[in-house]
Design goal:
CATH architecture of one domain: 3-Layer(aba) Sandwich
Radius of gyration: 39 Å
Oligomer: single chain
CATH topology of one domain: Rossmann fold
Distance between the termini: 33 Å
Helix content: 10-25%
Largest sheet: 11 strands, mixed
Shape: elongated
Low-confidence stretches: 1243-1252
Structural class: mainly beta
CATH class of one domain: Alpha Beta
CATH superfamily of one domain: von Willebrand factor, type A domain
Mean pLDDT: 92
Length: 1252
């Protein structure tokens, strides 16, 4: 994934996979009667596996063993301890894990029998960190001495045994004789130790009386079926970690388990034994197998181990019965000492495993077959097989893989690794609800919010992250006011922001709940698609395996801006304003219905794609593109085919690629409605919802039902071979995910009013006479589109502008949210679209400067602002660093945000534009709507482009620890707020803006687990991000349009002229306002406060509690009733419950910070600091029981996980208030926060900002 704000959707931190490969190197692995040299084949397969660059292997811990060990015919051994494989490029790097394994494989030789049961126990003991070694101890009586006493004179003499043979030890009788009579010493009067021996017999002859003595010694017999001694000898300084202590005795040696430490284990870890053999197991007995297996399980879990209850032995020495019961113990985490489920895969290597005809092959299949209900795949003995089926819970559950090829080894290892987690890795369901404004009723928010649900899937390379749009209702009163409720009546979220699964959205007409499910309910379920239908099915545990779907014969209204197909197969875009978009497929002739059944629907659709008889323009599309579009229409076709299919197969359930809407907020389109006596819209209205998605579609859906009315996929997407693949379900690419049409869109309606009746019975109806929409592609491309969707079934292109056109050559990716406004240009009132130049992907380097070679000529793409005719797409005016209508040499950085507008004289025409860039600069554009005409020439429309502030500068006096120059320049991705204030006789604007690098939100955190993140290593030494208030003292001047730049007060100001922490008065100061407007002198030009500092100025980014530069301002700020509300992203946020480490996760959270306007400090009416109110400003934390488990101090004012914006929702007046237009509050999971009263006024405004 490239650097972007999508990086906050990160792969799981948990889920370590560990396997030990136990390979058969018995004598049968050499040349056989079939001409196979299986050992050579095995080595080739292992080498292919070790050279594989499949990314799933890199983090997998792989160890290696073989049997029989050193050809002993009795045991297995561990050759290389398990460790992460690492990248394939390390294969020949001495010391790397791949190199160690490759060397061990090269040294394998074949010989001996096939003690599979013993080797299986060895592999398991290694994984569990136990042992298979045991000794049988015997107190052996050793025939040691003879004493004789001569009868005649009592002379005493001794003889002792000088040699023994171990082979003569009789463990049954606990006796060891002297080697033979020849090994008794000569008689001597010296006592050799008889006094400590035990007499056991006597005898006599004519001359002597004899007494026989034995001594006792402890005799231990090692279990030769254990591989511990050999594995211990394999553990060396250069090949460590096989055993805990290589110097320990065999009896005390234990394996060093490669599994994560107990404290670090997660439910999604996976561990298993990859057992490869070429034939029949042998050379064991149930007693011998049970001995090593019970020892491996330990005294607690192995004491009751038996070999009965499952598989049957094929021969007396096969060991299958024991292996089956052992596999069960390993798989059941409650019955083995590791406390984890260990799966067993069996790879049948060679032609003997080509079928299940032999009992040994059947046993191997049963031993390893996948039987779990949540299994990802089946094999030859899974429960649904007609023969040889094994019922759950089965035995080893790792998979049976017969193979005869080198590639089969690689494939089986990867398949086994994929089988190792408990369930398929589910993508995370997340998203935010927003409440759109209604152009017909701007003073009231709607009572419905729309959830942009999606599944970020960073663990895979799927081009489409699935998405959906769902409709919920705002709770207007009561304890849950400000939360969202489902059609079933319950709240959508729980207290921590997780989806409640027992809910349904308002567009879900099925019987199934859809809470937390992206693919159910919402607009996803209402796309007109062909469906053959199916009945619901469930597994043996009652889980739904197939959902019910009714037959459906619909086709979506799909449109694109293609006018022709060039000879090279590229699509020519419509260039004439007002042209109908190309519909795919074309609508049937009026009065006909080819969609009466699924077969006729499929036939009609396919016919339109026919190269000879098909639909004009469409029939000339390249085959590859036709196949992709057929998929997007709901028919699964092979996009690698070179011809169209002869017929289309209608799927049984919806087949749909719909991406998420991360940056494309839904827009409400009201086509008509009825007004009440107060001029407010009633519930009787026809509305649609507009939104873009990452697979490449722009959608309009019926707001009442959710049914898709049209989808627009531009030629920019279709002409791109990778981007167009996202239209197809399940496609992958290294550049994933696709971004499609996930840009910001706006609407521009116009209405006519008709009234019927009179007096109290009068009914007024408003009907749209214009419904134009405008928007871009964000990271999906560099184009903006204007569309006429007055009739969604027959949309027209107003224009397309993009970087490929000369007038827009400085345009980057189309990030800037369009602003619709009126200007008077050359004496004519024009409706215009105003956008920033867009984004340059060079900014994905967090330290980049303009001198970097990534930029061309020292400037970024998107270093422009465009004013565009909203009807034709003509560029009327623009600014950049050079060659524009009005140049400013400082405009060299990308301008990605919405442009803030201001009408200074309430004539309905925009006079000023405010914006920031990605280089830490703030600009104002002054426009002249009263141009003078001399002869046929008009005076300049654009008076000036002034840089108000350069904040890529330092405050060495009061902020010396932060450097904002060069690669540390602040970045402004969001628009400034523009608010007008009075102080005494001075009227001024506070331009509020906050910084944060949205291209690399994780630049400084997390410190570990940064797989797939950019930069790959967390940065240090970054400055904190700030919220700024720039005081614009010029805009109020009546003669502003005639002033020279040298006469401006607010121009090129720097941070050193700003006040840091204005809420903290310095010595001698009594009023905050006088910091900026002193009685004498010029005062400070603005203020700034760190986003990581508290209201008292305490900096929490001390690289302990928070890392400097981590907190960043994302999403649009809001200025309301003297308060600036800034959503701040905190990658280390602790205000929400930590995510499940086994699932894709959202890194960080967004909190709201508030600051008082205009001076960044909260004031009483007398100008003194309101300390109570000020205590609620800035970065706020809390402690104790208010925090989630594990956090002693956590963030306060949490909006939600990930990057979130401020979402206002309506609240009912209780009791009703005169002239009220309702209340506003910030939405929450279970209740809203804050409250603002809306009061209806008719007030002629001198200044206002209009951008919706």
């Amino acid at each position: 994934m490239q650097a972007s704000d999508l990086q906050i959707y990160a792969s799981p931190t948990a889920g370590k996979k560990t396997i030990v490969m136990m390979l058969d190197t018995s004598g049968s692995m050499t040349n056989n009667s079939y001409g196979e040299n299986r050992l050579a084949m095995l080595k080739n397969g292992m080498n292919a596996f070790l050279a594989s660059n499949n990314p799933i292997l890199n983090d997998t811990r792989v160890g290696l063993g073989n049997f029989s060990a050193n050809g002993d015919s009795r045991s297995g051994q561990v050759l290389v301890a398990a460790a992460p494989l690492g990248d394939a490029s390390t294969l020949n790097t001495v010391g790397s894990q791949r190199y160690k394994l490759k060397q061990a494989v090269a040294n394998l030789t074949a010989g001996g029998s096939t003690p599979s049961a013993h080797a299986y126990a060895e592999a398991a003991a290694y994984l569990m960190g136990t042992t298979t070694y045991s000794e049988a101890n015997y107190a052996i009586r050793k025939d040691s001495y003879i004493k004789r006493v001569r009868k005649s004179d009592n002379r005493t003499e001794y003889s002792y045994c000088t040699s023994y043979r171990d082979s003569q030890i009789d463990t049954a009788n606990l006796w060891q004789p002297c080697r033979s009579t020849n090994y008794w010493s000569s008689w001597s009067t010296s006592n050799p130790g008889v006094d400590t021996a035990t007499a056991y017999d006597t005898s006599s002859d004519w001359t002597y009386s004899y007494t026989y003595y034995y001594t006792t010694f402890n005799y231990a017999i090692a279990n030769a079926d254990s591989g511990i001694p050999k594995s211990k000898s394999n553990d060396t300084a250069s090949n460590p970690n096989i055993v805990v202590d290589r110097n320990a005795s065999n009896l005390n040696a234990i394996y060093q388990s490669p599994l994560p430490a107990v404290a670090n284990r997660q439910s999604c870890d996976g561990q298993g034994i990859y057992f490869l053999s070429d034939g029949e197991p042998n050379n064991t007995t149930n007693t011998r197998s049970a001995s090593v297996m019970s020892t491996a399980l330990g005294s607690t879990f192995g004491a009751d181990f038996t070999c009965s209850g499952g598989l049957s032995n094929t021969t007396a020495d096969s060991g299958w019965a024991c292996m089956g019961e052992f596999a069960k113990r390993l798989f059941d985490k409650t019955k083995n000492p590791a406390g984890v489920s260990i799966q067993t895969a069996f790879v049948g290597f060679g032609s003997d495993f080509s079928s299940l005809s032999s009992s040994d092959v059947k046993n191997a299949c049963r031993l390893s077959s996948r039987t779990q209900s949540d299994r990802k795949s089946d094999d030859n003995c899974s429960p649904n097989q007609t023969t040889n089926a094994v019922a759950a819970p089965g035995y080893g559950n790792g998979g049976f893989f017969p193979t005869q090829s080198a590639q089969g080894v690689t494939d089986s290892v990867i398949a086994f690794i994929n089988n190792l987690d408990k369930v398929p890795l589910e993508p995370l369901t997340t998203g935010a609800i927003s409440v759109p404004y209604d152009a017909l009723n701007p003073k009231n928010l709607q009572e419905y919010g729309y959830l942009r649900a999606f599944e970020p899937n960073p663990a895979n390379t799927y081009l489409t992250w699935r998405g959906n749009l769902k409709k919920y209702h705002v709770v207007l009163s009561g304890t849950n006011a400000g939360a969202f409720e489902a059609s079933t009546g319950g709240l959508v979220y729980n207290v921590s922001g997780a989806f409640r699964t027992e809910t349904k959205d308002y567009w879900n007409s099925s019987t199934y709940n859809d809470g937390g499910k992206v693919f159910f309910g919402g607009s996803y379920a209402k796309v007109p698609l062909p469906i053959a239908g199916q009945n619901e099915t469930r597994d043996e545990e009652g889980n739904i395996t197939k959902y019910y779907y009714a037959v459906q014969t619909k086709i979506r209204n799909l449109f694109t801006d293609v006018s022709a197909v060039a000879a090279d197969g590229s699509l020519t875009k419509i260039s004439t304003s007002g042209t109908n978009l190309l519909r795919i497929p074309a609508a049937p002739p009026e009065g006909t219905n080819p969609f009466d059944n699924v077969a006729n629907t499929a036939s009609y659709v396919l016919g339109k794609f026919d190269a000879s008889t098909g639909q004009d323009i469409l029939k000339a599309f390249p085959i590859s593109l036709k196949l992709k579009i057929l998929n997007y229409l709901g028919y699964s076709t092979d996009i690698s085919a070179t011809t169209l299919p002869s017929s289309l197969v209608t799927p049984n359930e919806p087949y749909l690629s719909m991406g998420g809407s991360i940056h494309s907020l839904p827009v409400q389109l009201t086509y008509n409605g009825t007004l009440d006596e107060n001029g407010n819209l009633t519930s009787a209205r026809e509305q649609s919802i507009l939104y873009g998605t990452m697979e490449g579609g722009l959608h309009i859906v019926d707001a009442s039902t959710g049914v898709e009315q049209m989808a627009f996929v531009p030629a920019d997407i279709l002409n791109n071979p990778v981007a167009s693949k996202a239209l197809v379900v399940g496609q992958s690419d290294a550049t994933a995910p696709a971004h499609g049409m996930d840009g910001a869109w706006v609407s521009d309606p116009a209405y006519s009013i008709t009234t019927t009746g009179s007096g109290s019975s009068a009914v007024s109806k408003v009907t749209a006479k214009q419904m134009n929409i405008y928007g871009g592609m964000r990271m999906g491309g560099s184009s903006y589109y204007g569309l006429n969707v007055l009739n969604p079934a027959s949309p027209k292109l107003l224009f397309r502008v993009g970087a490929d056109q000369t007038d827009y050559s400085r345009m980057g990716q189309s990030w800037s949210k369009p602003v619709l406004a009126n200007i008077r240009y050359n004496g004519v009132i024009k409706r215009v679209m105003i956008v920033g130049g867009g984004y340059d992907q060079c900014y994905e380097n967090p330290n980049i400067t303009l001198s970097n070679s990534c930029f061309t000529n020292g400037k970024a793409k998107g270093n422009a602002v465009y004013i565009i005719d909203a009807k034709t797409g003509e560029r009327l005016w623009w600014t950049s660093d050079t060659g524009s209508s009005v140049d400013n040499s400082n405009i060299k950085h990308s301008i990605v945000s919405r442009i803030s507008t201001l009408d200074r004289d309430a004539d309905g025409l925009v006079d000023h534009l405010y914006f920031g860039d990605l280089g830490g600069q703030i600009f104002r554009i002054d426009l002249n709507n009263n141009q003078t005409k001399t002869n046929s020439t008009y005076s300049s429309f654009g008076i000036r482009v002034v840089r108000l502030a350069n904040l890529a500068t330092n405050d060495s006096t009061y902020d010396a620890s932060n450097d904002y120059t060069a690669g540390n320049a602040p970045r402004f991705y969001e628009p400034p707020t523009v608010t007008i204030h009075d102080y005494g006789i001075r009227t001024f604007i506070t331009v509020g803006i906050a910084s944060g690098d949205r291209s690399t939100p994780l630049d400084v955190y997390p410190l570990t687990g940064r797989e797939g993140m950019s930069p790959s290593t967390a940065l240090s030494g970054r400055p904190v991000n700030n919220v700024y208030g720039i005081i614009d003292k010029d805009f109020i001047k009546k003669n502003l349009m005639s002033l020279t730049d040298s006469q401006l007060e607010t121009k090129d100001i720097t941070r050193s002229t700003f006040r840091k922490n204005p809420q903290i008065l310095r010595s001698g100061e009594t009023r905050v306002a006088q910091i900026f407007f002193p009685n004498t002198g010029t005062g400070q030009n603005g203020w700034y406060r760190s986003l990581s500092s508290m209201s008292d100025g305490t900096e929490k980014a001390n690289n302990s509690f928070r890392i400097k530069g981590g907190l960043k301002a994302f999403e649009e700020p809001m200025a309301i009733t003297g308060t600036l509300i800034v959503p701040v992203y905190d990658p280390q946020g602790t205000g929400i419950v930590a995510a499940d480490p086994c699932l894709p996760r959202v890194v960080g959270e967004t909190d709201q910070q508030t600051f008082c306007l205009p001076f960044g400090a909260c004031l009483n009416s007398d100008g003194s600091i309101d300390q109570n109110k000020e205590n609620g400003s800035g970065f706020r934390t809390q402690t104790g029981t208010n925090c989630p488990v594990g956090a002693s101090e956590c963030n306060k004012d949490v909006i939600g996980s990930g990057i979130r914006g401020i979402a206002f929702v309506p609240k009912r007046d209780e009791p009703p208030v005169t002239n009220s237009c309702g209340k506003l509050q910030l939405s929450g999971n279970e209740s809203g926060t804050g409250e603002w009263q809306c009061t209806s006024h008719l007030v002629p405004a001198r200044w206002y900002e209009r951008y919706r």
